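Researcher: Please translate sequence to structure tokens.
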Amino acid sequence: MAHTNNSITRPVGVNDVQAVLGTDSADIFTLCTHPDIDIWSRFKPIRVLDPRTVLTEGRNYRGADGQCGIEVPRYTDLAQIVALNIWPDYKHLSAPAKQPTGPNGELFGYGYPACLGHFDGYIHDAKCPIANFQMAENIVENYQFSCDLISGLATSEVVDINGTEPAPPGSLKLNEIAVPDSAGTVRPLSRWYFGVVLSGFGSSLSQRDLLYAQTAPHPGVYSFNGSVRDILDKDRTVRATPFLSDEPVSFNYLGASLDGITLNPPRTYAGAFVLPPNCGHQDVLLNPTTGTGGGSTPGEIAGEVVIAVTGKERRTVLVGGALGAFQGIDYAVSITSHGAAFTMTEGTLQLKNAVTGAVIPSVQIAFGRQTVAAGSRWSSSGFIARDPAAGISETGTYMLVFTVNRDIVKTCTVLKKSSV
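Model: Translation complete:
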């Protein structure tokens, strides 16, 4: 029996896995395909042909396909990803079906064994390498805008997601997960290009015009500034969608014409595209005639200021390693200035019931005046304790609402066992 602090080490017993996953099942196949397996743990049950494979040796944990036991959402056209209404989940890629017991007691599914020993080195509180996607909510003509993938592995904002930053031991990073590119070559996600595509104006999601797309200048760069010019439409909302591409992408159809030639935005753009985890679409207002909500700051309009709120459910760990009762929500808010200094005259954090929209009255956190110098970052974090009487219980889905200067509002949904 070898489990402690939500992690498992050899020798691995059925009771170790039961305790950490919080299940009563003693069936090996059920344990190896359990829905609560943390897919971001480096070591976990994956598809291998030989049940004697030791995942902790060399790169065996990456599996034959290089995907580290993760089903990565991959698409062949930008039109496919801008049309998605629900952001796809990264899923555990384990044995696909239960088959009769093999000669050594292992269970086989279409040639892939379910091996209890694959839990050696498993950690149940691994971190996803990406926390979320951030982009300016307004794009003004002739202004640059910033877009970033925010790291889930450290407290700093945009950092090296590939592996040099601190993270819980055993958490996967993007340079370990490989996906086939358009040529069929398996390539680590750290060698794909981060980009954003703007779409809209079409009659439906499936018929959206692809108006603008830009990738970072190099693979593995997760923060860049784009430049949008010749926006002829004012107060037009478009959809911004982050992606990872195996090749650089760059086009701009936001102007109606160029040198007298009418531009017709495409509705397809082929390639190999992966959607980063924990992200989603974001609405962007083009060329606003006025500020958002009665007047946002120039920094927010120009994309020079990134304001963020994140949250995650916290649970205790009982003796034996099983997840215990829901304790509350860890939260963090931040303001990062990429350009001129930014002043928060007032800031508030509220907690709402995400289903009903009702505000939890006991959670009204106020932040005093803060000035964020150019190139600097301010952040604050804390804990919201479980309080069933106030409506903060294990069964709820919550929305953190961070309001800055009364007119800049950022939200974050906190789901069971997830981080946004």
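Researcher: Any highlights?
Model: The mean pLDDT is 78.
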